[in-house]
Specification:
With about 70 residues, the chain is an alpha+beta fold. It has two helices and three strands, in the order ββααβ.
Amino acid sequence: MKTYSLEDVTICWKPEKCTHSANCVKQLSSVFKPLKNPWIQTQNATKQAIIEQIRKCPSGALSVMK
């Protein structure tokens, strides 16, 4: 599991669960950039927009911990 800080929450990514649907990349490309390092760039959108996108992850590979 990899983690990324976002204000008072932590974004968790479990690569082994990812089905590569690319929903995150297609719908919030300003944040989710698979060719960059780090690939999740939290400074490029609001916390609420990022959390809403993470909730749409079909595999559950992306999640938020408070």
